[in-house]
What we know:
Number of helices: 27
Strand content: 15-25%
Number of strands: 27
Amino acid sequence: xxxxxxxxxxxxxxxxxxxxxxxxxxxxxxxxxxxxxxxxxxxxxxxxxxxxxxxxxxxxxxxxxxxxxxxxxxxxxxxxxxxxxxxxxxxxxxxxxxxxxxxxxxxxxxxxxxxxxxxxxxxxxxxxxxxxxxxxxxxxxxxxxxxxxxxxxxxxxxxxxxxxxxxxxxxxxxxxxxxxxxxxxxxxxxxxxxxxxxxxxxxxxxxxxxxxxxxxxxxxxxxxxxxxxxxxxxxxxxxxxxxxxxxxxxxxxxxxxxxxxxxxxxxxxxxxxxxxxxxxxxxxxxxxxxxxxxxxxxxxxxxxxxxxxxxxxxxxxxxxxxxxxxxxxxxxxxxxxxxxxxxxxxxxxxxxxxxxxxxxxxxxxxxxxxxxxxxxxxxxxxxxxxxxxxxxxxxxxxxxxxxxxxxxxxxxxxxxxxxxxxxxxxxxxxxxxxxxxxxxxxxxxxxxxxxxxxxxxxxxxxxxxxxxxxxxxxxxxxxxxxxxxxxxxxxxxxxxxxxxxxxxxxxxxxxxxxxxxxxxxxxxxxxxxxxxxxxxxxxxxxxxxxxxxxxxxxxxxxxxxxxxxxxxxxxxxxxxxxxxxxxxxxxxxxxxxxxxxxxxxxxxxxxxxxxxxxxxxxxxxxxxxxxxxxxxxxxxxxxxxxxxxxxxxxxxxxxxxxxxxxxxxxxxxxxxxxxxxxxxxxxxxxxxxxxxxxxxxxxxxxxxxxxxxxxxxxxxxxxxxxxxxxxxxxxxxxxxxxxxxxxxxxxxxxxxxxxxxxxxxxxxxxxxxxxxxxxxxxxxxxxxxxxxxxxxxxxxxxxxxxxxxxxxxxxxxxxxxxxxxxxxxxxxxxxxxxxxxxxxxxxxxxxxxxxxxx
Length: 854
């Protein structure tokens, strides 16, 4: 052990420059792993914010989770998904809860969209019963509680944009359920500025479901604990047989939930819990990618650092150092560098985590109400990832020094060619990557994207293993062009051909960044590009009518009666869940959909009908995208079982299939069917009416007539294309940016360090060439051409690696070739070129400077 310690100490001092590159790679590894680790644990401990029910000890609400079970490998497996629309409970639950011992008060709560109708526009608000205000609690600032049906309390903080709604005695025109009614403001209370409170009876009538409640807030008697009371309430509800409202699928129990503590926020912010699961899955995939890339980059950097010293290690082996002493010396040497680097990276993990959180917030990737929390012990996560970084470094050191340590002393000084086992391993990995790409071609959506990503990872690793052979093949192709550049070109061609293993080590990180960035950026860009193209093809309307607070009842009929209007279609966005078995495993897929009015639909929208009749779209029916119809094996006359956003299941008869499903989603539903299962957002103004004008109509005159026909609505002269957006799209975009940023950072470090190590190790060779008569200009040209050959080979191989899974993915999902925006492609090439130049030339400037070699 003393010999190993001595060797490690002397080697660390003697090779400080080589270990600087390793230190940088390990520091970045520790920083990124720590940042993503903190984000993962904060997402794991995240919960919806408690606002409206902060004054309640517990909340009784519907089960916002749907489940699906199927037999997988002989066992029953169940998957679940969060529901983003309100699951209501029967009003009878209120009587049951009020009868439980220890309940001081049980307050019914309902929520419904309200439009504040003004002279020019309609603003969205939320209506609730005044009794529910005590659950926050929200107190009156001035005035009194509403006592009559035409009285309301509004929240303070309304300014001029609310038309002075915070003044007691003012008359407001409110739109609820499409009907405009005048109310008198009798009080101003605390709370969000979009809140409007009615009497309990009026709120019950306006909610549209008088026999159902959104939630029940429960206040416990003094001395009764929340946990104890929750158990009593749970038992009472089970005894009374209270279940959620609506028909749920078999195997999907509709059990009313009793929420306490931080879980109370789930009854208010419905999208928070599903988003938490999506965030965990997305960050988990990113963390996995970062771990794989770090293994590849750190191993490559350490192996290259040790390869530069292969003759030194071989000499130690030849003079009698045992394999154990060499392994111990290398392990101690790497361990010292890794420990300091891991600690430095861990120190920067917290700021990086805060930056990633800021990016998530800035891009709207997190829903309103979801709070990422970190308990004090969880802040120690970077120390765990630092330990993982040291472990990765030790494994890489063991791999890098194994060949020299195990060689016989007589052979230790001789550099050996890559073995046959390495070549076979690389070819097997290429085959596995091609198989994963084939899987991507047979799948859709997230499954296809995951398979494409796995194919890219596997093929990049295969290229790293096959690096010497790839470099040798590339030099056979590039050797002739290089020789055209004179003596410097001939020197470059000879050096590259003689040191294929060295060139292979430099090519690997370039292949890594090109393939990873290409797959991550091109996958989303291909979908967006194809979807935008389809969205433009789908839209045939000339105008669109929209109101933030919702359109009044009968708006579509009034629009159709306007002179110059040829057709009008109301279109409302929403989501459904498709439950099915994939390769024997249960799967719940959340899909964006549209609900439409079918009358003269193809005059305003062109879904690209393939079969059936879209005008037969009525409640109880559905139109299916052609690709989805093929995967489900359905056609007009078949039935499809879907779950709406509130968990209720419906068997819908297929009336048509259509081609343009990237823009419109995989299912087109009746507007009435979709609105029946929508709790807030569509009814509060997310929908719009698309209007097609007659060929000879005066567009400006029709616009003015529409504004008069639908008071408070906006008329858009150039409607935005119709495009269904997946709920997690913003999160996916942030994840792609994070992955590309992490891989890009790793690659910059890897390319710089690898090329710098190679250049540093070539100083004796360059001195010898200068002594043999090579000029400084010739050597500079040689180095530039070698760097150019490395860049070209890495970019071409990386593009080829990326194209295989991307082509499979794009043909399966869009039917087009992959697309990468030219600006993003230029950034990838520029980063690679600049990094390669920085790593190849500066380390040897000292050797090339002056008349005599130094």
